[in-house]
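Hi there,

I know you've been waiting on this one. I reran it after we fixed the sequence typo, so this is the corrected version. Both the input and the resulting structure follow.
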Amino acid sequence: MRSVELDVLIDEVGVVAASAQRHVAGVLFTYRCTIACRHCCFGCRSDLPETVMSPRQLADVLAMLHETGRVVHVAGGEAMMYWDNLSAGIRLAHGEGNAPYFIETNCSFATDASITEKRLGFLAAHGVRGILASADPYHQEMVPPERFLRVREATCRIFGEANFYGNRAAAKEIMALPEVTADEERLRAHVRAHPPVMVGTSRRQLSQYLDRFAADDPALPMAGWRQQLGLPGCLEQFRADGIWEIHVDPYGNIQTNCGIVLGTTDTIRPAQLLAGAVEHANPFVERLCADGPLGLALLARDEYGFQLPATVTQGCELCLLARRHLRQTHPHIFGPAEVYG
């Protein structure tokens, strides 16, 4: 069941502030997406397999994720692509006291005010507390800015401003976002000023804008997600108190954002995984936590024949290349295929 204490916290501070305090647990409803952003860490796009959670699976996974005490949300891919499944699953979850706290969207669905009001109104009526709406140069290369503005306005009105999770820049600035990716020099400057994690689509489409380093160069930049604890190696990405997001995908894989399967829901519940020692989930995670991406790459070289790249842009890129190689022998750990395409 959804935590009464967390509901009270959200009443007081909203989903954004509550997420910062409790961290998040997400449903990756599908890897498919209406768009293919240049910076996507999962490589989501429309031509992936039509693998999506059923309404019953969504409700069951939401129940599991609420056990973690984190702020639970539904994302993708683009969950709104499968509105019938999504709405049916949320209806089931709400009836069982397990509605998600917020839904993440790229706003491509918001083609007019009517559909925007209808969908957000349904979500509000079924226990959802807010919306995360994406707006940045990469999303707005493919999604008209006015769709984001439509969602932002409706979210603030229906759910309250504290429950809008996203870009709060002035409308004029939002409308100008497509200009960044339309200009090669502006795009280069943006990537260098705000480097995405170089995995998935971002490595393929944006790594050329960053400086390159030898794999064993101490100056090689790290990346990761929400690093706040200053722990060695990649320990913060896998220690329970450091993990920003843990999620479950349509295959039942339990993962962080790092593309390593830590368990599956048919053998362990996410809360049980977090209560244990996630950093010891398998030998590969242990090596990452102790020695970082270079440690994993050297393990892959010495034991599995991986060839170290001459140069990389980030530790996360080195990790991705090593993981891709290791996937050949350990697809149950380095998966699913969508993340490594």
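Quick highlight: The domain at 1-194 is CATH 3.20.20 (TIM Barrel).

Best,
R. S.
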